[in-house]
Amino acid sequence: MGNSLQTLVTMALYLVAMILIGVYFTKFANKDSENFFIGGRRLGPWVAAMSAEASDMSGWLLMGLPGVAYWFGLADAFWTALGLAIGTYLNWLLVSKRLRNYSYQAGNSITIPEFISNRFKENKKIILTIGALFILIFFAVYTASCFVTCGKLFNQLFNVDYTMMMLVGAIFVLAYTFLGGFLAESTTDFVQGIVMIIALVAVLIVGTVFAGGIGAVVDNAKSMPGFLEFFGIAGPTVNAEGVQQVSAAGAPLFGEAGKYGLLTIISTMAWGLGYFGMPQVLLRFMGIRKAGELIKARRISVVWGLISLAAAGMIGIVGRAAFPTELTTSSEAENIFIVISQTLMNPLVAGIMMAGILAATMSSADSYLLIAASAFSRNIFKGLIFKNATDKSVMLVSRLTLLAVALIGIIIALDENSVIFKVVSFAWAGFGATFGPIILFSLFWKRTTRAGAIAGMLGGGGMVFFWKLIVRPMGGVLNIYELLPAFIFSCIMILVFSFASGKPSDEIIEEFELVKAMKN
Predict the structure, then answer these.
(1) pLDDT at 377 over 60
(2) What does the buried/exposed string (b/e) look like for 194-209 if buried means 16 or more CB atoms within 10 Å of the residue's CB?
(3) Domains along the chain with CATH numbers
């Protein structure tokens, strides 16, 4: 009990520090909605880069990805991480600068739906409505994954009721997002990005030493069919309840290795496509103070991502050697980071490691809540319902929306058997297919039309549901990650409807060329 108390105290001090940051930035956030939602476009490169990555990765990085590696071995984690690393680099390289300039030029847009709507000079705010609704839907799911992480963390650490701890985590995230807005969220995300990478590297090192070194970890992985292969996947032997079986000697049982073919690799690497449509990342591009600082931010972001993704995947491999039968279901496997920290580290140090999970969770949940709030309050409440609404009214509605989205996330998160990786993958696909193609076309193809934008967003977002719920369960070659077919379908819809609807107006073309010519 004493050890648990020390861990809890360390985590509590961390939480208090995050709340204080939110309080500090309250005076800036309450100036106006632009400051609340995008920080007045004054992020520096370090904060922009680290907060983008921290808000993007969420608890999935410290629990979901290690859990996949622990349960299935190297392949699934490796190809997912590789796709994400490539997507991160290309997003910063291709999208960041032009989106920063274009969003400012297009009516000083401060949300993603607002930018797309302003880009096409629409009077009837159809794009605005579609974008805002998809953001509300997918961010409710995303927020739920963060609350699940909080519940699992405290349940595993202190054997406290999952539901109660999930609710405590949700209330805390609401508190400092409610207070400080985008600047508080971005600054805490910067701090949390540092905590996350330290925690990942530390847990990896400690776990490897405990397992007997790199050689012992590799030998253990080779003993399980498909576990250490790039083109194969391990198949844990489970009973009807999904619990892994153990041999008479106490070793985890595995069946024959499954194949991890080219189609599966392409499908898994398609995770990287999601970056082009992630509002929490794109907003950092829009919020940086100078476009010229994006080069430095890109380097910081890519290095952080490579180290963190590699460490997270390896923790799962190391965890199988260190604690081979500790976690017996795919849901429990997501606790391997917690098990290593809690078992092998001093309680105070373990508290810092656990703060890393909280950091990952909160840095994402606050982003999701804030963007969902801005989507409704600015894009629907002011953009459609009350066009003359005051800034004060917009701020009030945004905070009420925070509460509503959090409540929906809490309801979804009540299922404590939720697998974080699966919840995140669906929401990731939703954003990637809804916004990714139209962001790319809007920035780089001047022939894109409003009709193409509407068709692409509806087609991409709708296809995610159709492929996930109808097509993918058919199995075989159709069992591919829904983001890939939905992204492709969205691109096709944009092309077809843009060509069919006539050329954009001269005003739209002129603005496109103006942004294209900008150097800073």
Answers:
(1) yes
(2) bbbbebbebbbebbbe
(3) 2-416 (1.20.1730.10)
pLDDT value at 48 more than 70? yes
Helix (H) or strand (E) holding 298: helix 294-322
**How many C-beta neighbours within 10 Å does residue 101 have?**
21
* 109/163 Cα distance (integer angstroms): 39
CA distance 493 to 61: 33
Report d(CA 58, CA 161) in Å as an integer.
22
Three-class secondary structure of residue 272 per DSSP: helix
Place of tokens 């939905």: 486
Number of CB atoms found within 10 A of residue 478's CB: 12
Looking at the predicted structure, is the pLDDT value of residue 103 above 60? Answer: yes
> Residue range 397-410: average pLDDT?
84
Pairing of strands 232-233, 258-259: antiparallel
pLDDT reading at 32 higher than 60: no
pLDDT at 418: 66
Q: Report pLDDT digits (tens) over 147-198.
A: 887 888 778 777 888 888 888 878 877 776 666 555 666 777 787 788 888 8
Residue-level pLDDT at 347 = 85
Instruction: Give the type of residue at 431.
Output: F
320 and 70 Cβ atoms separated by less than 8 Å: yes
Residue 233's beta-bridge partner residues? 258
Q: What is the radius of gyration, based on Cα positions, of the chain? A: 23
Distance CA 264, CA 249 (A): 34
Pick from 280, 257, 292, 327: nearest CA to 72: 257
Instruction: Report the candidate in 23, 283, 40, 279 with the shortest Cα–Cα distance to residue 175.
Output: 23
